[in-house]
Design brief:
CATH class: Alpha Beta
CATH architecture: Alpha-Beta Barrel
Largest sheet: 7 strands, parallel
Length: 215
Amino acid sequence: MTQTPDSHSFHGIAQVTPVVGIVRRPKVDPIRCIENLFEAGIRLVEITMETPGAADVLKSLRSAIPSDALLGAGTVTDLGRLDAALAAGASFIVTPNLNLDVIRVSRENGVLIVPGAMTPSEIYNAVTAGANFVKVFPANALGPAYFRELRGPFPDIPLIATGGVNLENARDFIRFGADALGVGGALIPKSNSEFSRCNETAKELLRIARETRKS
């Protein structure tokens, strides 16, 4: 699948800042979490739809997103969550599972869709159904070398490694074939005293991903 992205599309942003920040049921203010990620240079952020008040967060931040960034909805497992995410103004949709109806309705609404998949058949079926990117999940359980094997039959499918990605393994995921990294736990503070640390972690992940892609 050949992509010709502009600089403000999901694909274009992922080429420059290949880290997707995932805000999932944070113990601190989710809006502050998202703002902290944007401040650190992350330009693709998703809030998962099982997070309490996720739709309200999407709505409240519509006019406060940096011009070169996108805010999407994650864990969109079914059409009910998709409807809520679309109504709240999500710029892109991410799922942990392969739901062909979610892909179809997202495309019908002109919203970029990143379904989750694990096996080669799921990855192929996701792209055939219209996926723009594929989230390979759970990435850490599969291991970075799994992406090297995927690149044999699927050299051009845009892949995001998600699930257990951190500073220690980020370089290998990119080196073995992931186009971008989906990172949650390592970037989300567990208390208000951790925002600075998470900000620095986000910057370091971006540095590692960018440098590895150039090497």
